[in-house]
Amino acid sequence: MSLSSASQVLQTVFGYESFRGEQQAIVEHLVSGGDALVLMPTGAGKSLCYQVPALVREGCAIVVSPLIALMKDQVDALKELGVQAAFLNSTLDWSEIRAVERDFLRGELDLLYIAPERLLGERCLQLLSQGQISLFAIDEAHCVSQWGHDFRPEYMGLSILHERWPHVPRIALTATATTHTRKEIIQRLALGEAKQFIASFDRPNITYHIVEKHDVRRQLLHFIREEHMGDSGIVYCLSRNKTEDIAEFLSKEGIKALPYHAGLDVARRAEHQARFQQEDDLVMVATIAFGMGINKPDVRFVAHIDLPKSVEGYYQETGRAGRDGLAATAWMAYGLQDVVQQRKMIEDSNGDEIFKRRSAAQLDAMLGLCETAQCRRVRLLAYFDQQIEPCGNCDVCLNPPKMWDGTVAAQKILSAVYRLFKERDQRFGAGHIIDILRGKKTDRVTQNQHDTLSVFGVGQDLSDSAWRSVLRQLLANHYLALDIEGYGTLALTEKSRAVLKGEEVLMLRQESERMASKSRNIMPKAKKPVISLPPEAEERFVQLKKWRLAIAREHEVPAYVIFNDATLRQIALNNPETLEDLSFISGVGAHKLDAYGEAIIEFLEEMQA
Length: 609
Ligand code: ADP
Ligand code: ZN
What we know:
alpha/beta; Rossmann fold; RQC_domain; Arc Repressor Mutant, subunit A; binds adenosine-5'-diphosphate; binds zinc ion; helicase; 6-stranded parallel sheet; 7-stranded parallel sheet; hydrolase; single chain; DNA repair; metal-binding; 4 domains
């Protein structure tokens, strides 16, 4: 393929009418030989930014991607479009590798996906130097960031591309966009001269919802049943055991669920991932080992039942919901225990001081997001240096929390912490402090004679859960600190003094009764994600889905690779009678028209009969 213009490629190969957002500017910049750094949220359409230039420019595009498990899907999807694509990674055997290398040297490839560790090997660098390269695309570029959540040491070596091929344009892409990560990418990949394209990071179709954790299995079950029964979703938890536990629990409750974590054997992991990709009603209960690069467009919810380590991670993980632009939910249940546990994990890790400090700061920002009385989206985007108006589509906006004067309550907690430390030179955790305030004579209280303290029993006016909420807010706003060396015990901070002295009024968020209660949910029912089709078209859509699944099985690719839901719905709605009619539908490119056009028209005709 040579000098065809970018929009022609977009229309004939991909079947899309026009570029979205900054895609066109990025494509033109790259086609004309410039370097680019592209920051776009998940689902915005990053792939086209290098796939179109790859087809317009002479030579083969080299795509660096850390996601070995997904390369095959990406390449399959391109092949379905009639694009000459291949990949090189450790899943191929020797003869397959030789075949790909030969195709590359003959100039028969448009795109070649390579895992970074392989790319940096001498054999591969040698190979590349013997062929013609149209561009380098570095996907998931945040993997080069040491402080990010996905650091891959191999990415550090990628600056060699610029040294060896100074005239080949490079494009680095990521959905992670803190200023810090961005700077690191630029520096480590030598992209100082690259033009930056930064899209808005808002994902307006995602509803954010954070609740207090009390009985997390029941809460999760309730959430899925109420809002996402029969939908495809991901549940994130911290430990491997828990993923298996929860998957089993959900299955028993009639929700199709599978576990996924790095400890499962490779075959099972691959099987679970393949099923998740293929099926449209499966819940994957996973550690964060799962999900990067999963480009399944119809994930309808992402639930966190443990606190993510950072806002960046949270944003990435929740971003896997609703890539198709249809309504989706990001739901999280968290409690103080999560914060304490993670602080301990940070302290016990092998990282150096800088690492620990940074991890603690990241956790802190996460806590801030959870405890905010502000729009969640405003908070989230502020983290990425972007400003928006309150969104109207998060739990805070939909159900604004009542504020109350929590100064006295705060003073009670702070003085309990102060007394314990002053009189006994000891620190205690949150649960114990609350027991003291509420006047509970637990064993620990009596053994330590804490029932003789003046603060004993001064907090009968609030419930346990209200006290926990006050405590979390004090932590989130730095009036209290977790003493890491004391294993998650509580300590005063510099800010505590003003409150203790009565020099500062503290307005706190009231935990709504309903939020604290067991099963009721404060969210309005999720808007049903799609514009509903008229009954006839709906029936066609259902039938077309069956047809699609059969074809997908035959080709051993995910269903959406054949046609995605949006395209299939449009076909069902338009009910085209000719190939020409069909060709006008978004997502039907020349190759797919060739491959499936007649089958679809016939299928639709038969349905009429
Ligand atoms: P990202 O990599 O940014 O998460 P993708 O490249 O996977 O996003 O694109 C998300 C979805 O949007 C895909 O289904 C893709 O085909 C579709 N898409 C991208 N660009 C366009 C466009 N210009 N017109 C129509 N659909 C598009
Ligand atoms: Zn909001």
